[in-house]
Amino acid sequence: MEADTHAHLRDKYAIVGVGETRYVRGAGKTTRQLAHEAVSKAIADSGLDRSRVDGMLSYSYNDSTASNLVGADVGLRLNFFMDCFGGGSSTEALVGLAVGAIEAGMCEAVVVFRAMNGYSGLRMGGTGGLSAAPVTDEALHTRPYGWRSAAQMFSPTFLRHMHDYGTTSEQVAAVKVAHSKHASNNPKALYKQRVTVDEVLASRLICTPLHLLDCCTESDNATALVVTRAERARDCRHHPVLIRSVVGRCNKPRMDMHYQHGPITATAGRYAAERLWRNAGLGPQDVDLTASYDAFTFTSMLQLEDYGFCAKGEGGQYVSSGIIELGGERPNNTSGGHLCEGYTHGISMVIENVRQLRHEADDSCPVGPDGKRQHTYDYREGGCRQVKDAEVSANLGWASPGTGSAMVMRRA
Fold first, then answer.
1. Between 128 and 14, whose confidence is greater?
2. How distant, in Å, are the alpha carbons of 121, 220, 355 from that of 339?
3. Domain assignment of residue 191, yes or no
4. Is 343 considered catalytic here?
5. What is each CA distance from 5 to 59, 73, 353, in whole angstroms?
6. Looking at 13, 119, 271, 293, which residue is catalytic?
7. Sequence-ordered alpha helix ranges (H) in 236-325
């Protein structure tokens, strides 16, 4: 293992504010309007004066609004801003870039946001005009062979895992079951109904082996978070949540034809894991809750394997054992994730883990006289979703089997 050269950054930075719009199918607003709302909420949540927030990062897929426009709308004068083209592996990478920008002295506090009309606007399935675009670059290795949607592109990896390790659809359906239980305790989730393994398998087949309920939601929303130095975080509104380690947009040897290098069942997490845990000074055994990107049930399972929460090939058994449910050893996607809460390209999963580490999950528990929720740790439907004594979390971001990002956070 390489020498630990990044220990000086452990716990030096923190996420101090989070905010989001409602998760809906049809917001009736532009991405600029949505971004204004989420960014404003995140800054208000941080308690920082707007004059002290001078950096902004976003990521887009031809649908979001530029950072400098949103910054002006909310009254910020930016010393640093940048918009990155990307998808599901962007959140943790942008948090890392925010840390780097502050460390380099370019700014003092950075807002990271994503605004998308993922249902009423640009749908990630690639329908409409996108399908008529010229076949160039990476598309030369996908579209001629029918790999147009995410489900089509990822399914060979899922099928090979089933072939090599005996993983079953029944086992992986447990991811949806767990996340639906968590969403049933989340007042803001788009889909709150609990489902069973049989109901997942009975839903119509989209692309073998994916059934409809193996697939994420489509939603309109914006999400945002604020990063600054830990020393400033102690003067903010909430208990500090410290950034322990970040890995950003780590690739397999090839991203486009990832199946030509190493087993097709391996994700970028196989390469990112060593750097993530080395820089954190922690291991999977130290983590209390995970947020493993659930574009599909299978993506959560694959990443939990490759980041070391179970051995390769044992993901099906791991996710179906009860470990990932609230009340289990290491709950995953406690808001319901992309399968149930809403699809945000990953920022909502960081927001959820920040609230979990604050011990302030916004669930259905009663609010006490001090304005804080009195968590019952009763995880029955309509109840609590706060993980008891949560101290360390891991976020595992996914863009494709070939590209990923990850982050470890801890409660100060």
1. 14
2. 19, 14, 19
3. no
4. yes
5. 28, 40, 26
6. 293
7. 269-280, 297-306, 315-319
pLDDT at residue 129, as a whole number? 47
The per-residue pLDDT for range 252-305, each reduced to its tens digit, is 887 766 667 778 999 999 999 999 999 999 999 999 999 999 999 999 999 999
The per-residue pLDDT for 125 is: 64
Within a domain: residue 24?
A: yes
Contacts of 28 (CB under 8 A, 6+ apart): 120
Contact between 70 and 77 under an 8 Å Cβ cutoff? The reply is no
Among 123, 18, 29, which Cα is nearest to 73's?
29
Q: Check: CB of residue 226 under 8 Å from CB of residue 46.
A: yes
- Please compute the mean of the pLDDT values over residues 294-317 and round it to a whole number: 98
pLDDT at 1: 47
Q: What is the 3-state secondary structure (H, E, C) of 342-391?
A: CCCCCHHHHHHHHHHHHCCCCCCCCECCCCCECCCCCCCCCCCCCCCCCC
Q: What is the CATH number of the domain that holds 15?
A: 3.40.47.10
The rounded distance, in Å, linking the Cα atoms of 85 and 62 is 8
Nearest-angstrom CA–CA distance, 337 and 349: 7
Instruction: Report H helices in 1-89.
Output: 31-46, 67-73
Q: Which token pair is 117?
A: 């009309």
- What is the mean predicted confidence (pLDDT) over 195-200? 98
Measured CA to CA, the distance from residue 228 to residue 278 in angstroms comes to: 23
Alpha-carbon distance values, 266 to 139, 253, 339, 402 (Å) = 21, 11, 22, 8
The boundaries of the domain holding residue 395 are: 7-122+218-411
- The model's confidence at residue 137, banded by pLDDT at 50, 70 and 90, is confident
- Interval 93-105: pLDDT, tens: 999 999 999 999 9
User: How many domains would you assign to the chain?
Assistant: 1
End-to-end CA distance of the chain: 27
Kindly state whether residue 109 falls inside one of the protein's structural domains.
yes
Q: Cβ(263)–Cβ(297) under 8 Å? A: no
Could you tell me which residue, 246 or 140, shows the higher pLDDT?
Answer: 246
CA distance 187 to 284: 30
Q: Is 293 a catalytic residue?
A: yes
381 in a domain, yes or no? Answer: yes
Mean pLDDT for the chain? 93
